[in-house]
């Protein structure tokens, strides 16, 4: 049975620009707040819009250990044109507070771990994947872990330095970024689902796939995996709308 959501005010302690349209927010919670969650889950931000309650869901972009040790939670938010809540966030300053509820969602890494864990994300869909992957290494996971991460431009590869460092430190971590509208990029330029088909066709045994991003990408990836004869119970998604 899922935990009931817990409501807390959180203070914005740090804001970092990751790209022209994406910011990383660190939320500080009261010392007595129960901020526990499972990697991959999301929280809801509660605001007022036109005098009426308004809420928006955002995947948690960190490992549960950060919440446990520091009572902090991280969010990765893209400024959406005309988006009420994302515009609100982009106008926030450090030390201001927001009202949140957590945790929600069932997009979590299944145990026991598969021998091969393949994470596929586009844009801010990398947020829950970041929490999942960090958590796996904190638990000293030695399974093969892939992150296939798609973006339009090379300036959009969120947390890129973290992924490259992780790949250097862990031989079982394989990072494949791809950019669909390159300028000076010399790496992969095809869509994430095409990379999945190329890398994992005929390798259904011992693989779990986790995908996160906008609905069209998730649906195309799901179609590709089913065509590859990946069992449905091995395919896990969190779709952003």
Spatial gap, N to C terminus: 26 Å
Instruction: Write the H/E string, N to C.
Output: EEEEHEHEEHEHEHEHE
**Quick one: how many beta strands?**
11
Quote the average pLDDT: 96
Number of helices: 6
**Strand arrangement across the biggest beta sheet:** 4-3-6-1-2-5
Structural class, by secondary structure, is alpha/beta
What is the molecular shape? globular
User: In this structure, how is the largest beta sheet organized?
Assistant: 6 strands, antiparallel
Low-confidence stretches: none
β-strand amount = 35-45%
Helix content: 10-25%
As a whole number of angstroms, the C-alpha radius of gyration is 18 Å
Summary keywords:
single chain, 11 strands, 6-stranded antiparallel sheet, alpha/beta, 6 helices, 5-stranded parallel sheet, 241 residues
Structure in words:
The two termini are 26 Å apart. Helix 5 (192-200) runs parallel beside helix 6. The chain is of the alpha/beta class. The mean pLDDT is 96. The longest helix has 13 residues, at 126-138. It has a 6-stranded antiparallel beta sheet. Strands 9-8-7-10-11 form a 5-stranded parallel beta sheet, with helices on both faces. Strand 8, helix 4 and strand 9 (173-179) form a beta-alpha-beta unit. It has helices at residues 64-70, 84-91, 126-138, 160-169, 192-200, 215-227, and strands at 6-17, 22-28, 42-49, 52-59, 72-78, 97-104, 116-122, 144-151, 173-179, 207-214, 235-240. It is 25% helix and 36% strand.
């Amino acid at each position: 049975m899922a935990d009931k959501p817990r409501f807390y005010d959180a203070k914005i302690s740090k804001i970092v620009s990751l790209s022209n349209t994406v910011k990383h927010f660190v939320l500080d919670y009261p010392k007595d707040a129960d901020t526990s969650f499972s990697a991959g889950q999301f929280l809801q931000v509660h605001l007022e819009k036109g005098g009426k309650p308004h809420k928006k869901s955002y995947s948690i972009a960190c490992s549960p250990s950060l919440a446990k040790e520091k009572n902090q939670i991280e969010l990765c938010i893209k400024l959406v044109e005309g988006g009420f809540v994302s515009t609100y966030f982009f106008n926030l300053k450090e030390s201001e507070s927001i009202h949140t509820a957590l945790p929600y969602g069932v997009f979590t890494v299944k145990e026991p771990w598969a021998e091969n864990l393949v994470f596929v994300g586009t844009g801010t869909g990398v947020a829950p994947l970041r929490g999942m992957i960090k958590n796996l290494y904190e638990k000293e996971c030695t399974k093969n872990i892939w992150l296939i991460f798609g973006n339009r431009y090379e300036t959009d590869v969120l947390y890129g330095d973290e992924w490259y460092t992780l790949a250097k430190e862990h031989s079982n971590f394989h990072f494949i970024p791809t950019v669909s509208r390159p300028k000076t990029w010399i790496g992969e330029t095809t869509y994430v689902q095409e990379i999945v088909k190329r890398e994992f066709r005929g390798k259904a045994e011992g693989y779990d796939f986790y995908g996160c991003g906008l609905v069209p990408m998730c649906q195309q990836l799901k179609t590709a995996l089913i065509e590859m004869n990946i069992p449905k119970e091995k395919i896990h998604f969190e779709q952003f709308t």
